[in-house]
Amino acid sequence: MSATLVWLRDDLRLDDNPALTEAAARGTPLTVVYVLDEESPGVRPLGGAVKWWLHHSLAALAADLEAAGSRLVLRRGPAAQIIQDLAAETSADTLLWNRRYGAPERAVDAGLKTWATAEGIGATSFQANLMFEPWTVRTGSGGPYKVFTPFWRACVAGPEPRLPLAPPGRLPAPARTGDGQLPASEPLDDWGLLPRQPDWSAGLAATWTPGEAGAHSRLADFVDGPAAEYGTGRDIPGVEGTSRLSPHLRFGEISPFRIWHTLREHFVPGAPADVGIFRSELGWREFCWQLLYENPDLATRNYRPEFDRFEWQPPSGAELAAWQQGGTGYPLVDAGMRQLWQTGWMHNRVRMAAASFLVKNLLADWRLGEAWFWDTLVDADSASNPANWQWVAGSGADASPYFRIFNPVTQSKKFDAAGRYLREYLPELAALDDKAVHEPWKADCAAPGYPAPIVDLAETRARALATYQRLKDG
């Protein structure tokens, strides 16, 4: 008998999942597998916050598959070998997956297609996690875009992203091995994805609902609320003005096609401009993946090679720890870093301020910040995380100008004037008035337990500008 093997990766959903839709249409016994692969060459090990999310996302996916008549097989190790072994165990003649765009992952996938062809197994991949695949959006000369605005303009000038696929009502019965048994699946708890000693995940659990249902609930809340005023609301960290869909997109619990067309259904005709701004944020995600596709070492090498000469200053251990732990003495930076530690997420405007402080006020190499966010963000992915850090540092594509140095005091006064966000994550400042909370070192009354600034903003700004100017001058 023929059988189908579907390999899920960063597409942990039933809705708008082309590989599962094709498997349902085939109707042959089905094996659905997730492989935890941190051994294949070049594959980056997952950070701690991502591992926490992955555990709960896989648990939710397993329950959803079971409700649809299927099951989830879990295996750990080098993906190519595991997929080959599982195909042999289940006598699969069809292998299906949704495409990935990082170089190590593409190498694994290409190798498996070559192997499958030699074995007489049909191997088919699908577009599922990007609306505009990197090789389809090119400049007039045929190369990749290096600036976001013309990239996004080219995307939206083309055909509308395809309509999302409905989730299969039922999936074919699970495939069995030659002796009639179900393929072995490793217990999820044995993977050790959850923190144990200590368990720092309480804030994450209180903030997020990993899984497809949680993703769709987030989307519904967004379109019914913040979406219509996203253009202004997204800049105010003390209100729920953003979608918070980024970790769900990171794991593919919801597809960008579903988000795009849900917005279309809710807001057209007469869509407010804010919805277009949010769509452009989806576009930035697509742009980051094109950057990674063209530059596989985006997390370790400067996109702009002239930055190889930049005079980064290694921060002292105390300075780096103060930044990581939210103890710099600058409330907006500290509130953001504590929000990150508590919830695995940080408001985007605050991310920019916190990142700017590290790479410009401390002159620390952007890779230090990228590595910290990789370990602590629930939405850290291989494209957006390094691309955004390089944008702030000035070393990336379409990067922030070298002279743009976020002043955390100015930023908090402008976007958190009443100090609502600051007080939420810095209880030491709760007693300060709305003026003093932004600059507690100037306050008449003390803020017990809150540190003095670790550096002077004016002095470090001048140092950064001089360092960037030397790079510019060659």
Highlighted features:
single chain, 474 residues, mainly alpha, Rossmann fold, Serine Threonine Protein Phosphatase 5, Tetratricopeptide repeat, DNA Cyclobutane Dipyrimidine Photolyase, subunit A, domain 3, 3 domains, 5-stranded parallel sheet, 6% strand
The stretches of 5 or more residues where confidence is low (pLDDT under 50) are none
Report strand order across the widest sheet: 3-2-1-4-5
Computed CA radius of gyration, to the nearest angstrom: 24 Å
Helix/strand structural class: mainly alpha
Globally, the shape reads globular
Number of helices: 19
- Give the second-level CATH assignment, the architecture of the largest domain: Orthogonal Bundle
Largest sheet: 5 strands, parallel
Q: Indicate the percent of residues in helices.
A: 40-55%
Order of helices and strands: EHEHEHEHEHHHHHHHHHHHHHHH
Report the span from N to C terminus.
67 Å
CATH class of the largest domain: Mainly Alpha
By CATH, the topology of the largest domain is DNA Cyclobutane Dipyrimidine Photolyase, subunit A, domain 3
- Whole-number total of structural domains: 3
Task: Compute the average pLDDT.
Answer: 96
Number of strands: 5
β content, as a range?
5-15%
- In CATH, the homologous superfamily of the largest domain goes by the name DNA Cyclobutane Dipyrimidine Photolyase, subunit A, domain 3
Domain Photolyase/cryptochrome alpha/beta: 2-131
Keywords: Chromophore, FAD, Flavoprotein
InterPro entries: Crypto/Photolyase_FAD-like_sf, Crypto/Photolyase_N_sf, Cryptochr/Photolyase_FAD-bd, Cryptochrome/DNA_photolyase_1, DNA_photolyase_1_CS_C, DNA_photolyase_N, Rossmann-like_a/b/a_fold
Protein name: Deoxyribodipyrimidine photo-lyase
